[in-house]
Design brief:
mainly alpha; Arc Repressor Mutant, subunit A; 76% helix; 0% strand
């Protein structure tokens, strides 16, 4: 099985060959984030680290969309959304709300958490167990819903 880095490299070649500009630019943006961390920290990123970077990239673009929406810049909103859609292709299959709720409910039961004060006890095991299948905000919202 190819690593995420190899998959991105192959998909970039294909996007360039097929003149898929949006996909090409999105993959280049991901590769730039990877290179920046690898060069700055002198490390080789694995799939798990790359998934975290992609999630961060999606979050940044969602924040940009919020600002562009306020400014009525639908052209820029569309551009950012297209990037998010391509970034999402490289994330593991995302959990449904039901799957997420079941996992967090199990962790609450395991840890004996009973109130919002116990949120910290749940967040770390939840993030470890769920990994890239769901972003931290969704995990946080679900914990609040179940404990609140």
């Amino acid at each position: 099985m190819m690593s995420l880095k190899e998959t991105l490299k192959e998909d970039l070649k294909t996007a360039m060959r097929d003149k898929e500009v949006v996909k090409r630019d999105a993959i280049r943006a991901i590769n730039t984030m990877i290179k920046q961390i690898e060069v700055d920290n002198r490390v080789e990123l694995g799939d798990e680290d790359i998934i975290k970077l992609i999630q961060k990239g999606i979050k940044q673009r969602e924040e940009a969309i919020a600002q562009y929406s306020v400014a009525n810049r639908t052209d820029l909103v569309e551009k950012e959304q297209e990037q998010i859609d391509i970034f999402a292709l490289y994330l593991p299959k995302q959990l449904t709300d039901e799957e997420l709720e079941a996992i967090i409910q199990a962790i609450i039961t395991e840890t004996g958490a009973s109130s919002m004060k116990d949120m910290g006890k749940i967040m770390n095991p939840a993030k470890e167990k769920i990994g890239g299948s769901c972003d931290g905000k969704r995990i946080n919202d679900m914990v609040k819903k179940l404990l609140g």
